Amino acid sequence: MAYPSSQSHVKPRRLSMSKPAMPFSKSQYIIFFPLSFILIISLFMFNASNDELNLSVAQKPKHDSCEGRRIFIYQLPTEFNDRIALDCQNYTFRDWSMCDDVRNDGLGNLMNLDAASDPAAPLLQPSSAWYKTDQFSLEVIFHRRLLTHTCRTEDPAQASMFYLPFYHTLDVSRNLFNPDLTVRDHLTNRFVSWLRQQEPWQLHHGHRHVLTLGRIIWDFYRHPEYEPWGSSLLRQPELGNVTTLLIERCTYGMSVCDNAVAIPYPTNFHPASDAALRSWQTAVRNVKRTRFITFAGSARSGALHNMTGTVRGELFTQCAESPKCKHLLCTQELCADNVQTLYKLYSESVFCLQPAGDSPTRKGIFDTLLSGCIPVVFARNQTVEQYLWHLPGNGSNYSVQLDGETVAFDHYDVMGHLERIPKEEVERLQESIVQLIPRLLIRNHKLEAEYTSKDAIDVAIESLFEWFERGDPQK
Ligand SMILES: *[C@@H]1O[C@H](CO)[C@@H](O)[C@H](O)[C@H]1NC(C)=O
Ligand SMILES: *[C@@H]1O[C@H](CO)[C@@H](O)[C@H](O)[C@H]1NC(C)=O
Ligand SMILES: *[C@@H]1O[C@H](CO)[C@@H](O)[C@H](O)[C@H]1NC(C)=O
Ligand SMILES: *[C@@H]1O[C@H](CO)[C@@H](O)[C@H](O)[C@H]1NC(C)=O
Ligand SMILES: *[C@@H]1O[C@H](CO)[C@@H](O)[C@H](O)[C@H]1NC(C)=O
Ligand SMILES: *[C@@H]1O[C@H](CO)[C@@H](O)[C@H](O)[C@H]1NC(C)=O
C-alpha cells in the first residue's frame, strides 16, 4: 500500500515530556460511590471465600497450569484503594459522580438502553454485556479480576508475580489541579514508605512487581523543573523495577518507559459468555456499513491547541469537503455520555479517523476496532509502539497508517487515499479485526456460561509471565 511519505520517525526531544497531556474532560475525574457498595466491595476484597463465589463454571483451576505462575496480591492498607474509592463523593469540581464508574467491579453501570427509543439498542446485544465503563477504570477492573484468578496464592513464597492494587489514578484524579504538591504527593509518599517495608519487594528488588495505572504515563511522571502536572509516583526510586500497565506508555528508551507496557483502554462491551462474544463478532461481520469514512472528534481550543498545522485540524477541513466523510463534532453529551451513539456510528462505517488529541492514544481506537471499523492512525506511537502484547505486528493487519506530518503540513488527501484501497484489502482488514476483538476487550469476570477466549487481561497476565521468564518486555 502506498504511503504518503516514509515514516519520519524522529525521536521527540526530552523536553516534550514536560508538556503533559492536558486535563481530560470533566467526566473523567469523578468517582462517586454509593454507601451501599462499601460493604459489598470490602467483602469481596478481603474475603477469599467470597471471591470463590465469583469463580465461574469455566474457571475451575487446572493446578498444573499454575506451576511457576502464581500471583500474590498484596493486601494494602485500605487508604491505598478502598478509601480512595469511597472518597469519590468529594470530587466537588465535577457536576456528576464518578462513583458510578467504580460500580460492578469497575465496569460501571449497565447501559440499559431503551429498546423502544434508542437506535443503538438493537445493535448492542446482548444488553447485559454493555456498560458505561469509564476509560480510566483499569485499576479497579484489573484488581477485581485478579482476585478471582485461578493462579492466585496467598503465600508470597509460592508466587512469581506480585500485584500492587494501589488505586493511584483515582487518588491523583482528586488532586490533579491542586497546586499544593504536598497534598498531591501525600499518598504517593506513604505508599513508597509502605512498599519499602515489604519482604517480597525487598527480596525481588522490585522486579516481578506489577502496578496498573489507569491514565497515560505522563500523568505519573511529574518533572520537578517544568509545569507541575501529575503525580511523582514513577519518579520514585522504589518504583524503578516495578512493571506498570497503563493505557499509554512512552517510547523514549528511558528505564521508566522500558518498564511500562500499554494495555487496551477499557471499552464498553464486557461479555460474560462465549455465546455473547460470538454473537457480537457475528453482528460486526454482518452489519451494513453504509458510511465510508467517519470522524468523531472534538475541536481543541486554547493556545496549546491551535489546530492550524495539526492532523486534527486538517481532517476537520478534509472531512467537511468530502461527501464520503461524516463528521460527528463531539461534545461531552454527544460522545462521552452517549457512547452507544459512537458504537452505532463506527459499526456503520468502513474507516474511522483517529488522529491524536491531547496525547497519541485514544479510547476511540479500541471502540473503532471493537466495532469492526478500520482505524486510520497518523503516528506509530498511536498503536504500533504502544500495545506490544495486544496489537501485534506493524499495524498493517488492523489499521491504515498515514504520516501525520504529510497530512498536517502538505494537506495529503486522506479521503482519496482511503478510496483507492482495493476492496479485497478492506475485507482482509475487516476480517482480521473481527478476529482481534476477543483479546482487546475485557470480559465480565462474573460469567454466565462457559468462556474460553483469552481477553485483554488474560493476554496481559500471560505476557507478563513470559516477560519475567525471559527478562525483556520487547521481545
Ligand atoms: C471528604 O473529605 C472530607 C474533608 O477532606 C473528609 O472529612 C471526608 O471524610 C471525606 N469523605 C469521604 C466519604 O471520604
Ligand atoms: C533494580 O534492579 C537492579 C538489578 O536487579 C538492582 O541492582 C537495583 O537495586 C533495583 N532497584 C531497586 C530500587 O530495588
Ligand atoms: C495558530 O498557528 C498558526 C501557525 O502556527 C498561526 O499562524 C496562527 O496565528 C495561530 N492561531 C492562533 C489563534 O493562535
Ligand atoms: C508521537 O509521534 C508523533 C509523530 O512521530 C510526534 O510528533 C509526537 O511528538 C509523539 N508524541 C509522543 C507523546 O511521543
Ligand atoms: C498479519 O496476519 C497474518 C495472518 O494472521 C500473519 O501471518 C502476518 O504475520 C501478520 N502480519 C503482520 C505484519 O503482523
Ligand atoms: C508490515 O509488514 C508487512 C509484512 O512484513 C509489509 O508488507 C508491510 O509493508 C509493513 N507495513 C508497514 C506499515 O510497515
TrEMBL record:
GO terms for cellular component: Golgi membrane. The chain crosses the membrane at residues 29-46. The keyword Transmembrane applies. The keyword Membrane applies. Residues 65-405 form the Exostosin GT47 domain. It is found in: Golgi apparatus membrane. It comes from the Eukaryota. It holds the Pfam family Exostosin_GT47. InterPro entries: Exostosin (IPR004263), Exostosin_GT47 (IPR040911). It is a single-pass type II membrane protein. Keywords: Golgi apparatus, Membrane, Signal-anchor, Transmembrane, Transmembrane helix. Its main location: Golgi. GO terms for molecular function: glycosyltransferase activity. PANTHER family: EXOSTOSIN GT47 DOMAIN-CONTAINING PROTEIN, EXOSTOSIN HEPARAN SULFATE GLYCOSYLTRANSFERASE -RELATED. Belongs to the glycosyltransferase 47 family. This is Exostosin GT47 domain-containing protein. It comes from Ceratodon purpureus.
